[in-house]
Design a protein that fits this description.
alpha/beta, FAD/NAD(P)-binding domain, 3 domains, five-stranded parallel beta sheet, 13% strand
């Protein structure tokens, strides 16, 4: 994206005038302003203690940075001519920073000592998000003639895969999407209140800037963003909507994958590809309880991900089964119009204060972020740290800690006290609800949720929180484990997903006829970096098992994976190798390391259940690493980690499907 493009992203309004910049900087967060003034001028006086930002605390923005009013005024005044100059195309005095200096700058910016290892990683992101607004920093890759790729799924990972192929210069590719729209979970999840609990600017591709209206966007705007990215990538001619991949077969003689897909008509078709990228995700298989009487219910019932477009809940008696993320978004959104809402909670959740809930980003701030990529890059880094690796210290078990039943280390205990106080304050004068709402397991054991009105909803006269499990459904309603029956008109099953069953809807056959489902079993998937599996050559995953971040941004990790695959394929093509798959030895060692690290995190604590773990208690969904630790593993892709399969190259474009 050119500088002009990024400047006009805000409704075609164009670059900011000096007067508009003067207004915008008055409400801008101080820390990013300090950094762009320093980077533009090169004057280290801006790195003095007078301008050093305070450390990030909680989820609140650092608007004043903890600086004195006088220092704030100096920063804002200095920022105006800097942003004017940047808008005019002038280059900063400091355009490239080496790793050690970047680590120093980041420590100053964040107000805390940051490991010098972060320098190269975060420095690369500042460069990527400021210099080119996400345009490729590497040239296209020289690919073999007739090479063809396939992408399965068109959610956020699918779009990242398409962008990767395009930056490599691969033009012959097909995207298979079983739905009729782009956007993955944001295409199908349309329930009331649906939204993201990651800051909007963290939930954004580096290669597709977005002018977000809210700090945390809602479903419709998120879906519109992915549709917009789809249009920007000009990928429509490559996509087969309504086409579900049901089988993949690898031919060892030609190193060609045959893709069997079901068309909307129900007929099957076959395609061929040299490279297959699976981007099918994991939160797409709804989990429904197996209860007596489900078929007898005469009202409406549905999983939250299948919310009917035409349902009217006015004056209806509604039951929501589950109290996780979707339930906590649905209940506040419907409780004012339903006659009553009964929430069946298996276990309570830790919920954090959400001061920015549905708060809009001011228009001048939006224009400043859109027109000044360097400012946006530093603002992005601030949120990336706030929601990312700074959290990981609360998650790792201290074996000497004396209260492992309730927390896993001293910081985790502090979080427990903080969250408990918040619950008690929100539910003041309702000790009955406090008893039901405070979890007995350590914070972060399950995904931390953000309070979008959950506790206020629980206090409503027409809302009841039931902590007994559901045991039976009949024609008129639900019976709980204490034998109490409640009549309801509508049942919403907010019961989550089978997050441990990666790729279980596709039969994947690799070398020697190995079936991936047999290799993994029902719910024990293992992959190297979440990307590659032994004996399945040229089959790569974005968002594979064990690679979702425990904190931070899934968008960032997905892009990191895409860049890893890009580098890996580039080296494979340059070497003249036809096909590769990760070695068994490395895959086993990597997964053993993951298991050992997970055993030392809160996610392996036995005091609760979580979709992060499979039926045997193994954590299979998220990774135990910090963003830095994962980045260090994917940095510098090496073919030595892979088995080379020495067959003559055959262009998939010329190959015949073989099943």
């Amino acid at each position: 994206m050119t500088k002009t493009d990024s400047a006009t992203n805000f409704g075609g309004s164009g670059p900011l005038s000096a007067g508009e910049i003067g207004v915008a900087v008055q409400s801008a967060n101080i820390p990013p302003l300090v950094m762009i003034v320093y980077q533009f001028t090169g004057d280290r006086a801006w790195l003095s203690d007078r301008y050093r930002p305070a450390r990030i605390r909680g989820l609140n923005p650092r608007t004043d940075g903890g600086l004195s009013p006088e220092a704030q005024a100096e920063v804002r005044a200095a920022a105006v001519p800097v942003i004017v100059a940047l808008s005019a195309g002038e280059e900063p005095a400091i355009t490239t920073v080496d790793g050690d200096e970047m680590a120093e700058l980041i420590s100053f910016f964040l107000g805390e000592d940051v490991d010098s290892r972060y320098g190269p990683m975060l420095g690369a992101e500042i460069e990527r998000r400021s210099k080119t607004r996400g345009a490729p920093l590497a040239p296209p890759v020289e690919t073999p003639a007739g090479l063809r790729a396939a992408v399965i799924g068109l959610g956020l990972a699918g779009l990242a895969a398409v962008n990767m192929l395009q930056t490599m210069g691969i033009e012959d590719y097909t995207v298979f999407e079983r739905g009729d729209d782009v956007g993955g979970v944001w295409s199908v999840n349309k329930y009331p209140g649906a939204g993201v609990d990651t800051p909007s600017h963290l939930y954004t591709f580096s290669f597709a800037y977005q002018d977000w209206a809210r700090h945390f966007e809602l479903r419709d705007e998120l879906h519109a963003y992915f549709v917009d990215v789809f249009d920007r990538l000009q990928v429509r001619e490559h996509v087969r909507f309504g086409t579900e991949v049901i089988r993949l077969d690898y031919d060892e003689n030609t190193a060609i994958w045959t893709i069997t897909a079901k068309e909307p008509s129900g007929a099957t078709e076959t395609h061929t590809a040299n490279i297959v990228l699976s981007t099918v995700g994991a939160l797409n298989k709804p989990k429904l309880p197996q209860l007596p009487g489900l078929d007898a219910f005469r009202g409406q019932q549905f999983h939250s991900t299948h919310w009917p477009d035409d349902i009217d809940l006015s004056d209806k008696h509604v039951a929501i089964v589950g109290a996780g993320a979707s339930s906590q978004q649905i209940a506040p959104a419907i409780s004012s119009r339903a006659a009553n809402v009964t929430i069946y909670q298996r276990s309570p959740q830790w919920v954090a204060p959400f001061p920015l809930f549905r708060q809009e980003i001011g228009e001048s701030q939006r224009r400043l972020l859109a027109s000044t990529p360097l400012f946006h890059a530093w603002a992005w880094l601030e949120q990336f740290w706030q929601f990312g690796d700074t959290v990981i210290h609360h998650l790792r078990i201290d074996p000497t800690w004396q209260h492992l039943d309730r927390s896993v280390n001293e910081r985790n205990e502090g979080q427990r006290r903080f969250f408990t106080r918040y619950i008690e304050e929100k539910l003041e004068n309702r000790p009955d609800l406090v008893a039901k709402a405070v979890p007995d397991y350590p914070p972060f054991g399950k995904r931390i949720l953000l309070d979008n009105g959950w506790y206020d909803t629980l206090k409503r006269d027409n809302v009841e929180l039931v902590t007994n499990s559901v045991t039976e459904v009949d024609a008129t309603g639900i019976t709980d484990s204490q034998g109490q029956h409640r009549d309801v008109d509508v049942i919403v099953w907010a019961t989550g997903f089978h997050a441990d069953r990666f790729l279980d809807s596709i039969d994947v056959y690799g070398r020697g006829g190995r079936r991936l489902r047999d290799t993994w079993g029902t719910d024990d998937p293992r992959a190297y970096l979440g990307v590659s599996v032994p004996h399945f050559p040229n089959f790569f995953m974005l968002g594979g098992p064990g690679s979702f971040p425990g904190s931070g941004s899934v968008m960032y990790v997905t892009e990191v994976q895409a860049r890893y695959v890009r580098e890996l394929l580039g080296k494979m093509f340059a070497e003249g190798t036809t096909a590769i798959s990760v070695t068994e030895e490395l895959n086993d060692r990597y997964n053993a390391e993951m298991d050992e690290l997970h055993a030392r995190t809160v996610w392996s604590h036995q005091g609760f259940s979580t979709y992060y773990r499979n039926s045997k208690g193994r954590v299979v969904f998220i990774m135990p690493f910090t963003n830095l630790e994962y980045w260090e593993r994917v940095r510098g892709a090496s073919l030595d980690d892979y088995e080379r399969h020495g067959v003559a190259y055959v262009p998939a474009a010329n190959a015949t499907a073989s099943v």
